[in-house]
Amino acid sequence: MIRKKLIAGNWKMNKTSADAVALARDIVFSLGTQSSVDVVVCPPFTALEGVARAVDGSLVKLGAQNMHFEASGAFTGEVSAPMLRALFATHVILGHSERRTLFGETDELVNKKVLSALKNQLRPIVCVGESLAEREAGSTLKVVQAQTERALDGVSKEIAASIIIAYEPVWAIGTGKVATTEQAQEVHGFIRGLLAKAYGDAVAQRIRILYGGSMKPANAPELLAQKDIDGGLIGGASLEVRSFIELVNAAAGAS
Ligand code: PEP
Fold first, then answer.
1. Other C-beta atoms lying within 10 Å of the C-beta of residue 36
2. 96-155, pLDDT tens digit by residue?
């Protein structure tokens, strides 16, 4: 398999710095020398520095949950790609549905962030996904296509393989409602096709497409066994060491 599975934890606005460091230490300890799966944790900004130290020297990589597209300037409350790099972050979640719906992020803004992340050697985890109303209206693929193509506008073939896409049906995030394996694989296969059209099949086969939306140890093995599901972006189940490690183990089992 040319794509190594990846499990990324999105801790959202949870955990003080001290709590985040404790969780990161537990994850590092429990993972041991597990190396068949890439593991990324994305704590809140306030915990990035402490978690960077806690995962230093381990296989766990550090991600942020958002960033501004400019490198510096008068953008009160924002954080830039070079600032994240200076804390040894390697990944950044961009275009999460909570950013889109609660903070008004548009496809154009997500695109600027993607280009800035890549310019600064950060791997973007680009989130796309339809709302319940869009799924019920039969427009899932159209919505996912528009979000994916707009987010990746201007991304060259040479660098495209460092992008990670996360398909997250909005109706499945934090709701306990998981997409069926057929629903998820259909959209993942569709996204792979879009990537092949944009970058050619060889590059598309190297780009990882994660599933996100109420992924738990109980439903993960079946989802991760699908041919175009290359890992998970995990919210709720990433906040507790046991469930997170079980998800990493499920990904290892499906590799
Ligand atoms: C997420 O927010 O990216 C997510 C998938 O959350 P949950 O796992 O809690 O549904």
1. 12
2. 999 999 999 999 999 999 999 999 999 999 999 999 999 999 999 999 999 999 999 999
Residue 72: both structure tokens together: 């510096």
> Does ligand 1 lie within 6 Å of residue 233's CB atom?
yes
User: Atom 4 of ligand 1 has which residue's CA nearest to it?
Assistant: 235
Residue 71, in any domain of the structure: yes
Asked whether residue 1 is domain-assigned, the answer is no
**Ligand 1 pocket residue status of 215, Cβ below 6 Å:** yes
User: Domain for residue 12, yes or no?
Assistant: yes
CA 118 to ligand 1 centroid distance, Å? 24
- Quote the domain boundaries for residue 88: 6-254
How distant is the alpha carbon of residue 10 from its chain centre? 8
Helix residue ranges per DSSP H, 63-173: 81-86, 97-103, 107-119, 132-136, 140-151
Alpha-carbon span 168 to 208, nearest angstrom: 14
CATH number at residue 154: 3.20.20.70
The CB of 174 under 6 Å from ligand 1? The reply is: yes
- In this structure, how many other beta carbons lie within 10 angstroms of the beta carbon of residue 94? 29
Domain count along the chain? 1
* pTM of the model as a whole: 0.97
Catalytic amino acids? 96, 168
Q: Are 135 and 180 within 8 A, CB to CB?
A: no
The closest residue, in CA terms, to atom 6 on ligand 1 is 235
Distance CA 72, CA 61 (A): 24
Q: Give the 3-state secondary structure percentages of the chain, helix then strand then coil, rounded to 5.
A: 45, 15, 40
